[in-house]
Amino acid sequence: MAKPRTDTDSVETRPTPDALGSAEGAGRQDDLWIEVIRKMDETYADLVRYQVELEQKNAALEAAHQFIFSVLASMTDVLIVCDINGRIEEVNAALESLTGIPEEGLIGRPFQSLLTAECLELASGFAETIRNDAVHDCELTLRAQQEDVPLAVNCSSRYDSRGRLVGMVLIGRPVGELRRAYEALNRAHDELKQAQSQLIGAEKMASLGRLVAGVAHELNNPISFVYGNVHALERYRKRLRTYCDAVDASDPPESLQALKAELRIERLLDDLDPLIRGTLEGAERVRDVVQDLRRFSSGQKGEHTNFDLVHVVETAVRWVTKGSHPGAQVETRLPERLEIRGHAGQIHQVVMNLVQNALDAIKGVEGPRVHVSLQALERAEGSAVGADPDGAPVVRLSVEDNGPGISESDLLKIFDPFFTTKPVGQGTGLGLSISYGIVADHGGRLMAENRAEGGARLVMELPA
Questions:
Q1: Superfamily for 304-464?
Q2: Of the residues 138, 244, 312, 357, which has the maximum number of CB atoms within 10 A of its CB?
Q3: What's the pTM?
């Protein structure tokens, strides 16, 4: 018997249209979400890339900033960045160090306020000058923390991104050290020239010494003859006087008396005495000159002996003043005799140097005067020139002039080797230095000071 068919058996199982729509919508939503996720991934990747690039640029910016900062900090030259009105916008550590003012105290100030008064007019024209041309090697003086500092300044224009003039940049190089180095080089050059002149002068003096020694030796022999013969003549004069007196006492004949009157024998005998004395005095003076020449030519050689300092001073003054500054009035105040122990030739050289320097100092002075005095002291007197710490007796030679005096700075250097205030070629700067050493070797002191009434005073003290 056949089974009856039901409706479900006769109808095929198929998805409805609504079910199909729902499935297709779910698929599209899935695609949209996938697309959104993909876009988000791309955006995130872009953000990560941008972040990496930003960090790289930030690191590069920080490196550049640090590089610029290190460059500015290491600059020894002064850097000032200003606006067009001259107000400071940026500075470097060199300026802070020189002025002693921190950066925040400098920003906003006119850069001219950092300069000395004599530079203001020149610096005020920078704003106009840089519109046409840069400023090169303009010297300005910075009011620094300790002392004013000269700067060699270059100033140029500063423009913005659109090419508009917005300010100026000043770079200043301190020239103090360079100037001091240049001055030191000049001094070294002058000292070299002076040393060369001194070597030439020393050779000349050595030749002159040999010549003088030879001349003194040649003069000494004939002077000895003259001196000895005059002494013999003095004895003969006495004998002649004795003989004539004896003849007169024997009642000579009238003819002999007439001959005596005609020949003026009495007057001749009377004149012989002053003539012989004058000849002896002249011979003695020539002998003294020969001794002085030999002493001068001996230079630094020889041992210390006792000698008359008065004679040495008189001779030195006479030698220097002859033909030197004939209009000068040279006064001396000396005792009759003052004996000390030492090397007469060296002390003679010292006195000549002191008197010569005094004569050089009064050139061009109205009423030039030099005063030379010598005295013995029981002990050194306390004064501007000092005092003997042992209080021992001393002899003091003082040479004073009415010249312009010695500057305070030069007083400390006047005895330094090669120091001189004279033009090159007119002084070696060794005279006082050598004199100082000679006096020190004699156990004395050589000092200099300015007189209250004007002029200078050089004092030599030697043990009595």
A1: Histidine kinase-like ATPase, C-terminal domain (3.30.565.10)
A2: 312
A3: 0.41
